[in-house]
Amino acid sequence: MQNEISVGIAKENNKTSNREAREIPHMWKRAVCTKDCPDTCGLLVHVENGKITSVKGDPDHPFTAGFICRKAGSFPEHVHSSKRITTPLKRIGPKGTGRFKPVSWNEALDEVAFQMKSISAEYGSEAILPYSYAGHMGLVHRNAGHAFFNRIGASRLDYTICGPAATAGYHISLGSGPSTEIQSAAQSDYIIIWGSNTLTTNVHAWPYFKAAQKAGATLAVIDPYRNRTARQADLHLMIKPGTDAALALAMMQVLIEQDLIDHDFISRKTIGFERLKARAAAYTPARAADMCGLPEDMIIRLALGYGRARAPYIRTGWGPARQLKGAMAMRTIALLPGLVGAFDKPGGGITRTLGGALSDLSCLIRPDLRRPGTRTVNMVELGNALTRLTDPPVKLLHVYLSNPAVVAPQSREVLAGLAREDLFVVVQEMFRTDTTRYADIVLPGAGFLEVADLYQAFGHNYIQMARPVIPPVGQSRSTLSIFQDLAARLGFKDDVFSLDETDFINRLLSGASPYLDGVDFETLKSGRAVRVDIPSNPYESGFNTPSGKVEFYSQTMADQGLDPLPDGQPLRDPDGEGKYGLEFITPPHHLFLNSAFNEIGELREKAGPAQVMIHPETAGKRGIADGDPVRVFNDRGECRFYACVTDATRADLLVAEGLHWPSLSPGGGANQLTSQRLTDMGETCAFHCNRVDIQRCDNES
Ligand SMILES: Nc1nc2c(c(=O)[nH]1)N[C@H]1C(S)=C(S)[C@@H](COP(=O)(O)OP(=O)(O)OC[C@H]3O[C@@H](n4cnc5c(=O)[nH]c(N)nc54)[C@H](O)[C@@H]3O)O[C@H]1N2
Ligand SMILES: Nc1nc2c(c(=O)[nH]1)N[C@H]1C(S)=C(S)[C@@H](COP(=O)(O)OP(=O)(O)OC[C@H]3O[C@@H](n4cnc5c(=O)[nH]c(N)nc54)[C@H](O)[C@@H]3O)O[C@H]1N2
Ligand SMILES: [Mo]
Hints:
Layout: H1 2-15, H2 17-20, E1 26-32, E2 42-48, E3 51-57, H3 70-73, H4 75-80, E4 89-91, E5 100-102, H5 105-123, E6 128-132, H6 139-142, H7 146-152, E7 156-158, H8 164-174, E8 190-194, H9 198-201, H10 206-214, E9 218-222, E10 235-237, H11 244-257, H12 263-269, E11 270-271, H13 273-281, H14 285-292, H15 296-308, E12 312-316, H16 326-333, H17 336-340, E13 349-351, H18 362-365, E14 376-378, H19 382-387, E15 396-400, H20 404-407, H21 411-418, E16 424-429, E17 441-444, E18 453-456, E19 462-466, H22 479-489, H23 501-509, H24 521-524, E20 530-531, E21 550-551, H25 555-559, E22 582-585, H26 601-607, E23 611-614, H27 616-621, E24 629-634, E25 637-645, E26 653-655, E27 691-696
Parallel strand pairs: 6-15, 7-14, 8-9, 8-12, 9-10, 11-21, 12-13, 15-16, 16-17, 22-26, 23-25
Antiparallel strand pairs: 1-2, 2-3, 4-5, 4-17, 18-19, 19-20, 22-27, 24-25, 24-27
Helix pairs in contact: 5-22, 8-16, 11-13, 11-14, 11-15, 11-16, 14-15
Bound molecules: ligand MGD (2 copies) and molybdenum atom (MO).
């Protein structure tokens, strides 16, 4: 496969022939950013003497168009960092202290295989729990462990840490499948960015929104704090977290009362309008103003602007769904375009996720290898699983492509679980993270620029294939090869355990999908981005709901005993209600990607120590000044920050951007304060639903 894909690369190479004349092995290679971000950028990577020296955006990528974020600019350091783990490691000190000795691959894998066999024999194979997420977004390597853990009969992991609540809510209202392509928003005259910090988390969408704004469109942002994106808005609604459904219902009330709705669209393509109208009537702007902590006139202005627009468009992030009633929030927001007929207006619509053409992953996951009745563990509840689960207890945790000591909620439970002396912990990682500290065996993982893979994005409709830019650093190995070596040690003979990346890529491309016409290995081998056959406005052909229409009323929800109509009543953190007076959210940091990039010295330095934003009024009442060390606490734990006193947040809200590693940012990570409670649908983490309080504290104490 490598030679085939390198055709495009050889051309790039020719361009640099003046350097080659000096006999320095030197070239630009095409690659794909694999980080868990909607943009999945096309990259050009400069390699000199086998080392990556620079990374820039690929100008030929139709969506990411040649620019990259600060994080991607640090990839040379990321790959060649002195903090890279280059050999397998075995624990020599007490758990949690991170003391290891290097061992050979054979010794490390033999030990893991031995533990898997003996734990299965003694406790049953469900005592093994895999824990992985999105460190590497390539389809092959991200999914390379599933067949192995299915075959061994391990407990199954429910992948709920991020999107399922948002997805579930949308599906009820609009059905499954892709949403409005972001590029079309450049034609919109009214854009609502609803709970997405686009300039930080989806920056390649920004040029389209900005183009619309320059052409006269209004840009409204609905977000509890003035993030980078809100600073660019014409209208910013600093909504109280968890109250989005109430705001959307109030907008509906105004739209209906002012007759700004599309009667024709409603009669042809929606169901349940009369019942929705009755429900929305209760949400007057005055009532919503009170519930959402917003000025009434702002709610009316938003509704009128949206209702009168030629092409109303909404970009939702995941923020509103990281609430106990997050799915309901998303369901309700997703109904607005149906009311104004936005789906039939060029430039209008709503964007959730895109891509997804490669949806049949069965060749990798091999669901047929699962043992019927195997238990499932929700990844949000890792803390509970490690400390409370019995019959059997978890005795072996195998972590890959994730950093649960930092990213999973309710860290106190997670860390207590990881620290159990009777838990065998395997971690596949590139760096010494807060999770590897608890490992019995660390297996060095090759990074994305060191392996071949197939990539689809969740922020655009292009796919790309990439080959290794350099060989794996040190002794590191790809996720696929590690699981294949383990499978061999356990005596698994199924063909899935001997296929290579090319085999899997070919199988994925020939999987069932309505969107892959004309896309095959040949078209992808130059490494360039290829558009899949997803329509720019997929709603033109209808909605993938049971009725085929926008469902203001959902029989599916009624059948499950749930409220079939949108409901604006928020659900607050029940552990803190009446006890702790402030809300606390932990949205993404501009310079980190979840917990990744903490290892890059330059980015860490620029990010500075962990900060919490506090409103001047709230700070004043507690005697907190800008820059003061503070402790934020609730029943679940406590966490140290430096106060950033600013009116960019609400008086009832503290905001801590990003996931700092507690080991590098003393005081504990933000997930000390979050909860393992699950959302209303989708069983996702309500990361942004926390009650806390804050005190000034001594730096030392
Ligand atoms: N730089 C950077 N980029 C990233 C990431 C990162 O960590 N750093 N993470 C990546 C990942 S994994 C994902 S899933 C995406 C997430 O991308 P986003 O959807 O942008 O991130 P969220 O954490 O969901 O938060 C989005 C916004 O929702 C706001 N918010 C919180 N609660 C509420 C609420 O109740 N209502 C409303 N209206 N807004 C609310 C937050 O303040 C935040 O500004 O970004 C990806 N891109
Ligand atoms: N409080 C709070 N917590 C959150 C969130 C929040 O908004 N607030 N966001 C949540 C969200 S949206 C998500 S998606 C999750 C993300 O959770 P994770 O997917 O666990 O996020 P990362 O921090 O990116 O951790 C990925 C790890 O994989 C490693 N890695 C990357 N590439 C490779 C590779 O090729 N090989 C190997 N072996 N390892 C690799 C990285 O070094 C990194 O340590 O976090 C969630 N946690
Ligand atoms: Mo995520």
